[in-house]
Amino acid sequence: MKTVNVNIVTPDGPVYESAVEMVSTKAQSGELGILAGHIPMVAPLEIGAVRLKKEGRTDLVAVTGGFLEVRPEQVTILAQAAEPATEIDIDRAKEARQRAESLLQAKQDNVDFKRAELALRRAMNRIDVYENRM
Amino acid sequence: MASLRDIKNRITSTKKTSQITKAMEMVSASKLSRAEDNAKSFNPYMNKIQEVVASIATGAKDASHPMLSTRPVKKTAYLVITSDRGLAGAYNSNVIRSAMNAINSRHSSKDEYVILAVGRVGRDFFAKRGMNIIDSIIGLPDQPSFADIKEITGKAVGMYADEAFDELYMYYNHFVSAISQEVTEKKVLPLTDVAAETGGMTSYEFEPSPEAILEVLLPQYAESLIYGALLDGKASEHAARMTAMKSATDNAKELIDSLSLSYNRARQAAITQEITEIVGGAAALED
């Protein structure tokens, strides 16, 4: 099967680089699946997992605040933060989830709810990705 | 003339100081190489985001965004990047001086501008002069990751969007080489020159629309401009500190040399005097 090169880049450096058969992820306008030869496209991504299918297995990368740039033989994902499933620190993610949950439940005036909610979504995403890594 | 013991004390204390400066020099050298690596690994992200922003800005001319258009300036924000600690030569004073010059020549009253201070030195300087600091960040690690500075970049970009200020300038030391850093002024917002920096053009399909993408992309772009400047500033800081500590070590060595010379002279003088006294005494006994 034809493959397409995928790069996942964050401000702290490249995170993932490989030739894959299919990229699928959730953009803000809905689920997207991209194969080799796709027309050039740009789309912002949701906080979620990027699934990279190659040679019968699927790599998962948790992505936050990113967007996707597609060219016929090259897919680039620019994200503020990205972690491959194998490198996620599950304890830290669970801690972050707990912190965000308790912030949300505290119902105090000085809590920035939007930020706490985003933090919760990021933590949940990392936990999800970690648990589905196989 | 100072006594033998005084000189000896000064030599010892200067030696101790030079050991410290030497150690700081080596620490800064290793931090500098890490900072350079960081800046290098940030480059692919910056280049890519620049490329996409440029191609959207030129490809979709009708797509407009508040961050792209200039509006009447009522308030200007200055983001000044300094270090938390001193002992870095002219690193901080250079950047502060150039920011002050700009502020003094552009504004006549304190209501026309606000300061975003990065680093303790800058914050204290502006606070002491009663300038309006709307945000400051201190205690940045030596190798800042994007998550560390997300707060200040997000805030700066958000405040621009809320029209708390109408343009944003950045002052930082640009890293040229280990021995030379250049104070740089950069206009971050509004993003006026994105289209000028275009390279290879690709016409993209936008999903869902160019406007929606600019909405996500431009704040990220502005944030990464600031992050890039911070990394640059950090590298310069370590380089400046390294150079400053190197010259401090060299000066200490020179001082020790001249002190040992006067120590030896004084010692020799004391010996000569003793001999003269003994000879004089012996001569007096012989008579």
From TrEMBL, chain A:
Topological relation to the membrane, as annotated: Peripheral membrane protein
CDD domains: F1-ATPase_delta
Cell location: Cell membrane
Coiled-coil portions: 90-133
Ranges for domain ATP synthase F1 complex delta/epsilon subunit N-terminal: 5-82
Domain of life: Bacteria
Official protein name in the record: ATP synthase epsilon chain
Automatic annotation (TrEMBL), chain B:
Recorded superkingdom: Bacteria
InterPro entries in alphabetical order: ATP_synth_F1_ATPase_gsu, ATP_synth_F1_gsu, ATP_synth_F1_gsu_CS
Membrane topology term: Peripheral membrane protein
Subcellular location: Cell membrane
Keywords carried by this UniProt record: ATP synthesis, Cell membrane, CF(1), Hydrogen ion transport, Ion transport, Membrane, Transport
Pfam family, one: ATP-synt
Keyword Transcription: no
A GO BP annotation: proton motive force-driven plasma membrane ATP synthesis
Similarity field: Belongs to the ATPase gamma chain family.
PANTHER family xref list: ATP SYNTHASE GAMMA CHAIN, ATP SYNTHASE SUBUNIT GAMMA, MITOCHONDRIAL
Biological role: Produces ATP from ADP in the presence of a proton gradient across the membrane. The gamma chain is believed to be important in regulating ATPase activity and the flow of protons through the CF(0) complex.
Name of the protein in its database record: ATP synthase gamma chain
Organism: Jeotgalibacillus alimentarius
Originating gene: atpG
